[in-house]
Amino acid sequence: MPEGLRRTWHEMRRSWERSASIEVPAAVAAEPPVGDGLRIAFLVYRGNPQCGGQGVYTRHLARELAALGHSVEVLSGQPWPALDDGIGFTPVPGLDLYREPDPFRLPHPREVRDLPSAVELGVMLTAGFGEPLAFSLRARRLLQGRAGRYDVVHDNQCLGTGMLGVMADGWPLLTTLHHPITVDRQLALNHAEGRWQRVTTRRWFGFLGMQARVARRLPAVVTVSESSRADIAAQMGVDPARITVVPVGVDHTVFRPRPEVAPVPGRIMVTSSSDVPMKGLVPLLEALARLRTRRLLELVVIGRPRPGGRVDRAIDRLGLRDAVRCVSGISDDELARCYAEAQVAVVPSLYEGFSLPAVEAMACGVPVVATTGGALPEVVGRSGETGLLVPPNDPPALAAAIAGLLDDPAARGRLGAAGRERVLRRFTWQITAQGTADCYRGLLEQQARAGAHLGPRGMTVAGRPDGWAARVEAPAGSPAHAGVAPAGSLATAAALADPGAPC
Questions:
Q1: Does one domain contain both 142 and 195?
Q2: Do 173 and 137 sit in the same domain of this protein?
Q3: What's phi and psi for 82, nearest 5 deg?
Q4: What digits encode the pLDDT tens for the residues 387-406?
Q5: Lesser CB count within 10 Å: N end or C end of the chain?
């Protein structure tokens, strides 16, 4: 057997052995609701906070919903979520084809036990991303056996075809769509190196067609900024009257100023959960290279760039290997301490639907330099008052803004204090939870007015292109229920965060 083939075979055998040794965690019962609290099934196909914003959103929103008296059970795929006491958990195991240390692995045939697993594997083998579809099918099957257990189902940006089945089974469904992934696809295509990479990029993002079709039929969508709301409507064809803005929050008791920690002179910090062009790390590195000709600087990257990837190559190309330090796998408290050690935090993204790193840095009282990409101006506020804003993909502008703050301690203190005040006024998880709970109530009230039963009753729910909500149709032979809720009747929960105030 050729050496390369032998090595592949041994790696695959090790992967199968690893799969056999991995145990699915036990389910955890949720605390019951208090008073008129709701029973919420919260769906997330990738639940771990260190995999990105969806896991962070899941953990903190679930905790604060429970604090309001609601009962929350998280139904999650791998990698598993980190949840607080009192939050229920049901594992929805998939093939976990992108796990470390063997991403894009070929599972043992015995692992492919059902249709969702076959779909997940088949899509990966054709260079696509099948997790959202496969998870949605598994979640629907699981919910079918839990009739009457929940009052509402909350989908955290899965948008798989199975979500239409969840609606057809009669579950009231609210979906969070953080931002349209169409933006990620276009930016990835813009930075693709060669025709083959463009072909594979288009295939990887093939799930977007499914997500757009599902999103257009959803009765109620929550998103995190007005920028995302406009982009979802324009790029995915979702009626804006069905979209409610509920800003994301930050744990301001953890992300807070640390006066006992002295900032390190010349230290800049950036947080990036993924090594993709959208995060703007290469323009930041180019800005750092400009600044390094005149001063000593250190860039701390919270995240792990892919070895040999665009960011890794740019570090070598610009001669910055000794000026960049990457940190990963740290706790929220350690992350907050890293912010305290930085003189400036940078959010160089070409686009953001919101930006957890921006509000985390602002909550810590660290001055922020961000771009005007996507929702960042909504989050950071007016340039010069609560942070500094520069055009995206503009290394000279980034360099000038960073240098200006490094040279002006008074400006750093002023912007840092104003940034934290803005976060406390607008972007806490308590505000996010209250706004989301209001959306649950609005959804249930409108479905009740439309004649829908709460919970699965054999009803089918078919989306309408006009107006907010669903048309509820009884199956043949059952008592007829039909009606349509008025368009735009969900209040914009962003009002809780005083959106009328100038940004």
A1: yes
A2: yes
A3: -100, 120
A4: 999 999 999 999 999 999 99
A5: N
